[in-house]
Amino acid sequence: MIAFLNYPNWIKPVIIPGLPFHWYGLMYLFAFGTTYLLFKYQVKNDKLEISDDDIVNIFFWTILGLIIGARIFSTLIYDTSGLYWRKPWLIFWPFNSSRQMIGLQGMSYHGGLIGAILGLLIYVRVKKLSFLKIADLIVAGIPLGYTFGRLGNFINGELWGRVTDVRWGMIFPHAPSLPTNLEWVKNLADKTGISYLGINAVNLPRHPSQLYEAFFEGIFLWVVIWFIFRKRKSFDGMLLGIYLIGYGIIRFIIEYYREPDGDLGFIIFQLSMGQILCFLMIVLGIVILFYAKTRKNLPEKESSSNKHKKLSGRKLQKRIKKGL
Asked: Which of these, 38, 306, 9, 6, lies nearest to 147 by C-alpha position?
């Protein structure tokens, strides 16, 4: 009995054969565009005093930081060949050895997150805008945009999951085949109805983890933040903290279904690099929530302090007048 799905053979990474236009790159444009439109909607709906020029510049610096951070993390941390350490100019070189344009293949989510935060921080510091307020507006739309990014991974047939025997397990054509001299490989092949007689290696079904992430880290997390927490926001930085915690928890769990990076494998205690970084995300989200909520009370304390100073000043003026 066949108990798996084949990766759709009609899906191709290239939009137009012969031209350097890929669905993955287009999905990035959809992701940025979706987040941008949701940002503008919030500004208009909440009647916030943020100009169109500021919105464009906010996204320019945030996306620039995202691309730089995502690429640096992917090449210097996830790639263990050492190529990019020896030739750092290749990090942003969009051509292969045959001088064909292939774009920037390989991006790290966590690196992109760090880069985006730094890019946004630089801009809001220069313009004297509230980082936490702007960040809340951005992360309210990021998960829905992120959905397109993971769909791009699926179209590329990359970032597949771990081997499985579930009925919706999928055979990805570029996934590594496994040696048939291993007993567990033969057992799983028998269970899913895959013939392995007379061959040394077999491609087994895997979790379509890209689709898991597209739904849970994308659509599900967006619904939770947009329709539940956004309407109950009580201080700036609340949505940012919830996003970091929510994404960190969901991605940490899904990593158990996603194949660890081949070069890195498990880092410590059978945890992948992604899970370690997600744990740090959760911690950062908790710190931001605590800091932002504490900061919320500062204006009241300051106003009370200023009021006290003003009263003290009036008393002093009265004493001076009496003395005169």
From this structure: 38
Please give the span between the terminal C-alpha atoms of the chain, in angstroms, as a whole number: 104
Cα–Cα distance between 243 and 247 in angstroms, integer?
6
Say which amino acid occupies 88.
P
Give the tens place of pLDDT for each residue, 86-141.
888 878 877 766 666 666 667 889 999 999 999 999 999 999 999 999 999 999 99
pTM attached to this predicted model: 0.85
Q: Of 4, 273, 285, which Cα lies nearest the Cα of 136?
A: 285
- Residue 218 CA to residue 23 CA, distance in Å, equals 18
Residue 194's Cβ-side half-sphere holds a number of Cα atoms within 13 Å equal to 25
DSSP state of 163: B
Strands 201-202 and 178-179: antiparallel
Strand runs (DSSP E) across the chain, as ranges? Answer: 5-6, 170-171, 178-179, 201-202, 266-268, 271-272
Contact 155, 174 (CB under 8 A): no
* Residue 291 Cα distances to 86, 90, 175, 239, angstroms: 40, 39, 44, 13
Q: Where do we find the tokens 């992109």?
A: 112
For residue 86, CA distances in Å to 17, 73, 95, 100, 289 come to 33, 15, 17, 22, 40
pLDDT along the chain (324 residues), means of 10: 85 80 87 97 94 96 95 84 82 71 74 95 95 97 95 92 95 94 94 90 96 97 97 95 98 94 73 92 97 75 46 48 44
